[in-house]
């Protein structure tokens, strides 16, 4: 039996562990609890909504189907939330972008509709969408509670005899030009195949084997990989599903509050932004949420503010495949959308001599990549 070591129990590593555990000897190592990295801070919108590249669009649509199949196979877990997405726009430019996007998506066979105010109210009764807004609905889109999903995948992998090790990997272990596992502070784990699924920290691990991953450096001032989310205390029934307003994205959290994010605030945050500024941005997010949910948040306040880091490949596309003999990597933005689909394809190519054709455009050594 092949021993596969997966570094990282975020959504990518966890979904892969669940897939592989039935056939292989799997060890997962993470320095923290499953899903506690980027996965646990994600808006976690499962979609192919803003994807002009036709091949990547199809890949993401397949990923949406893979989620539906995975959720059905797992008995429709409560952390998979099939409530769709409402979006609205007000300025002439934004209205035109939204109506064009809906038209193009419909032409590609994607479920997308423009709604009347009454239709939108029937979906989200507490939402005060401005009267002059153009509203769109994407009924096949979903969201997940990322940390719970990762924990559930890992629990299932463990039931299939996978091992979970808590510890920080300090370096990859190389002998005779082949990666043969990883070194932790208190020992080594040897493996036939090592999969680096360490999210935005993948480059630092690959560097220990003199390999590079084309992932943006979050330490640069103003790095787009760095963003901010706030969560609220419980606000029962405030929102049923995910919404994209003009200056706020929001969705329910697993414990009955809301998760709040905004593109302009993400753009204003980096790793040097002081805590006091992060807190004031969180208050701003809360004010925006109150504006669209006027009475539903009367008894709610900001519960937590988290600076978070997206794994952002340089060209925006997933980075998936062999990096060195014995070393495979899987790192991507939209990792929530893609995880079950990637897990199925990666499991297929790790357990057979034939590469998975749908992954070919996303190889680490593709043209333009520094690897
Ligand atoms: C605010 C925000 C909004 C987002 N919105 C969406 C969205 O709407 N839809 C979507 O699809 N995607 C979205 N994303 C992106 C998505 O969340 C990520 O692509 C995905 O969560 C990445 O998962 P991962 O498993 O690769 O990484 P992670 O979840 O970061 O997991 C990596 C794991 O590796 C572990 N690790 C790292 N280095 C080591 C080491 N040396 N030793 C031991 N363990 C290590 C970490 O502890 C971590 O648990 C969003 C991200 C953010 C931050």
Automatic annotation (TrEMBL):
One cellular component term from this protein's GO annotations in UniProt: cytoplasm
Residues annotated as domain FAD dependent oxidoreductase: 3-348
The UniProt record lists the keyword Oxidoreductase: yes
GO molecular-function term, one example from the UniProt record: oxidoreductase activity
Keywords: Oxidoreductase
Gene3D superfamilies, A to Z: D-Amino Acid Oxidase, subunit A, domain 2, FAD/NAD(P)-binding domain
Protein name in UniProt: Glycine/D-amino acid oxidase-like deaminating enzyme
Organism: Thermomonospora umbrina
Taxonomic lineage: Bacteria, Bacillati, Actinomycetota, Actinomycetes, Streptosporangiales
């Amino acid at each position: 039996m092949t021993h596969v070591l997966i570094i990282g129990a975020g959504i990518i590593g966890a979904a892969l562990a669940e897939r592989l555990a039935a056939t292989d000897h799997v060890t997962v190592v993470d320095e923290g609890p499953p899903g506690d990295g980027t996965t646990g801070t994600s808006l976690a919108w499962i979609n192919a909504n803003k994807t002009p590249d036709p091949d990547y669009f199809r890949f993401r649509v397949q990923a949406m189907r893979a989620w539906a199949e995975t959720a059905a196979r797992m008995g429709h877990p409560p952390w998979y939330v099939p409530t769709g997405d409402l979006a609205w726009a007000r300025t002439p430019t934004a209205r035109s972008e939204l109506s064009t996007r809906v038209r193009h998506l419909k032409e590609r066979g994607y479920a997308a509709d423009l709604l009347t105010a009454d239709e939108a109210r029937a979906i989200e009764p507490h939402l005060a969408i401005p009267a002059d807004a153009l509203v769109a609905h994407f009924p096949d889109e979903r969201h997940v509670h990322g940390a719970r999903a990762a924990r559930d995948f890992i629990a299932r992998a463990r039931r299939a005899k996978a091992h979970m090790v808590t510890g920080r990997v300090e370096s990859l272990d190389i002998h005779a030009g082949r990666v043969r596992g990883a070194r932790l502070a208190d020992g080594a784990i040897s493996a036939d195949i090592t999969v680096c699924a360490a999210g935005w920290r993948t480059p630092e691990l690959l560097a220990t084997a003199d390999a590079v991953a084309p992932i943006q450096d979050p330490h640069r001032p103003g790095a787009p990989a760095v963003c901010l989310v706030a969560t609220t205390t419980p606000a029962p029934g405030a929102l049923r599903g995910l919404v994209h307003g003009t200056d706020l994205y929001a969705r329910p959290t697993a414990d009955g509050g809301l998760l709040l994010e905004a593109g302009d605030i993400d753009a204003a945050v980096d790793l040097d932004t002081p805590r006091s500024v992060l807190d004031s941005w969180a208050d701003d997010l809360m004010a925006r949420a109150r504006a669209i949910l006027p009475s539903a948040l009367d008894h709610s306040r900001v519960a937590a503010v988290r600076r978070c880091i997206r794994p952002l490949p340089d060209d925006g596309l997933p980075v998936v495949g062999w990096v060195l003999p014995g070393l495979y990597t899987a790192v991507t933005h939209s990792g929530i959308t893609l995880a079950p689909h990637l897990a199925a394809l990666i499991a297929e190519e790790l357990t057979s001599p034939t590469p998975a054709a749908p992954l070919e455009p996303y190889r680490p050594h593709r043209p333009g990549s520094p690897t």
